[in-house]
Design brief:
Helices cover 0% and strands 44% of the residues. The termini are far apart. The protein has 90 residues and is mainly β.
């Protein structure tokens, strides 16, 4: 995604295989206008082994927002395919 006004915040939500929210976080970034934006996905202790989907929203300095990867079909698909995280035993 290219933002000419700058990404200033984010919201990340982690969903289980049934599409139920099992955690997430939000915060501010910057603004980031031209460099890579890296966000950490919060994995809370005690998550059951499963495949989890990540949905996220980026907030722009111009008052707009862009949504990606929400399992209910909200927003746009994540470029390159869904963002999935597999949690295993151990």
């Amino acid at each position: 995604m290219t933002s000419f006004v700058g990404v200033t915040g984010y919201s990340i939500t982690l969903y289980d295989a049934d599409g139920v929210s099992v955690g997430g976080e939000d915060g501010g970034t910057g603004p980031v206008t031209s460099e890579e934006l890296k966000l950490n996905v919060p994995l809370h202790e005690g998550l059951a082994p499963d495949v989890y989907a990540v949905g996220f929203t980026l907030f722009h300095a111009g008052g707009l927002h862009s949504q990606y990867g929400y399992p209910d079909g909200g927003g746009l698909p994540v470029p390159g395919g869904p963002l999935l995280i597999t949690v295993t035993d151990g």
